Request: fold
Amino acid sequence: MADYRSPWMDEELELFRDAARRFVESEILPHDARFREEHHVDRELWNKAGEVGLLCTDIPDRYGGVGGDVRHEAIVVEELGRRGITSLGHSVHSIVAHYLLNYGTEEQKQRWLPRMASGELVGAIAMTEAGAGSDLQAVKTRAHLDDGHYVIKGSKTFISNGYHAGLVAVVAKTDPGQRAKGISIIMVETRDQPGYRVGRLLDKIGQNGWDTAELFFDDVRAPADCLLGGVEGRGFAQLMDDLPYERTLLAIGGVAAMEYALELTVDYARHRKAFGRALLEMQNTRFKLAEVRTWVHIARVFIDDCILKLKDGRLDTVDASMAKWWLTDLQSKVADECLQLFGGYGYMKEYPISQLYVDARVQRIYGGANEVLKEIIARSL
Ligand SMILES: Cc1cc2nc3c(=O)[nH]c(=O)nc-3n(C[C@H](O)[C@H](O)[C@H](O)COP(=O)(O)OP(=O)(O)OC[C@H]3O[C@@H](n4cnc5c(N)ncnc54)[C@H](O)[C@@H]3O)c2cc1C
Reply:
C-alpha cells in the first residue's frame, strides 16, 4: 500500500528494512526455486543471516542478539513474505530463542542465545507427535532423570527446521501420570548426539523450501541442566504463555503474503489483455481487486495494532488468536481470488501467485489450528 506507513515504523527501522530486503533479494530469491526442489535451504544461509544481523533481532545484545524489539522481527518476516519466501524458518528460530529468553536460566541464555543469533545453532520446536497435535497434552515422548541426565524416548513429526536443527526444544512428559503439569521442555543439542535421528524430510504441497522433518529420540541423554527453566512440569505453561508472540509472527507473514499477492495481481491485470482490453479494465477484475485491496488494508491496520500491543506487552492470547485465525483465513482467500485473475498462468509453478496459494494453506493448520483458536476466543466471551 504505497500511501500507508505502519505507525510503528521509524527512520532507523527503514534502514533495517533496507538491509533485510537486500539480504532476501541477493541471498534467498535467486536460490529459492532450488531450495523448494531440495526441500531445505543451504545450511550456510543461516550463518549468513546471522552475520548480517537478521537472526534473534529482538534478543538483547548481552546475549548476542540485535537488541531490537518485535518490530525488527516483524520487518524480517515482512520482507520474506513480500517476496513470497517461506524457505527460511526464521519465525520458528525466533520462537525458540524467545523460550530461552523468557524461561531459560541465566546460564541457558548465555549458553545458547549467542550461538542462535550467529546462526551456528538453528532452533526447532518438537511438540507434535503422530498421536498428539492439537491435543498437546497427549504427548507420549518421555524424559526421566538418570545419573544427572534426562533420558528422552519418543518421536516427533512435522518439525519445522528439523533437518538443520542444532538445538531442539523437545516437549516431553517428565510425569506421565499428569497431563499439562507433567510436561517439560528439554533443550537438546543435536550434534553428535547418540540416539538422535532425523527421519524423512516430509514432502508437502507447499512451503517446500522449508525443511519439515520427523525426529527420533532413542534414549537421547541430555544433561539435567538442559531442562528449560530448571523446574519440571512447567513446559505446558511456558508454551501457552509465549503463544501471542508465535501467533503474531504467523499473522504478520500472512499479511505480507497478501500484500505481495495484491501487488502481483494488479500488475498482471494491468498488462494481460483479453477481448482487446486489459483485465484491469473489466468490471469484475476491478471489483475483485477493490475488494482484495480493502481486505488487505484492514488486515494491515489490524496487524499493526497487534505489533504495537505486542511491543508494549499488551497483546493477550485472545487478541493474538483473533489475528492468527482471521488473517490466515483471509490469506488463503486473497491468494485464491488473486490466482483466479491469472487464469491458467496462475496454476503454473513459475508464476509466484501459485506458490502464494499453496504456501498459504498450512497457515490455518499449524501454530494452533484455526478452529482451536476460535475455541480460545469463545472461552473469553
Ligand atoms: C508444515 C507444517 C509445519 C509444522 N511445524 C511444526 C513444528 O515446527 N513443531 C511442531 O511441534 N509441530 C509442527 N507442526 C504440527 C502442527 O502444529 C499440527 O499439525 C497442528 O497442531 C494440528 O495437529 P494435527 O495435525 O495432529 O491435527 P489434529 O489435532 O488431528 O486436528 C485435525 C483438525 O481437527 C480440528 N480440531 C482439532 N482440535 C479441535 C478442537 N479442539 N475444536 C475444533 N476442531 C478441532 C481442526 O480442524 C484440525 O485442523 C507443523 C505442521 C505442518 C503441516
Remarks:
- The chain has a mean pLDDT of 97.
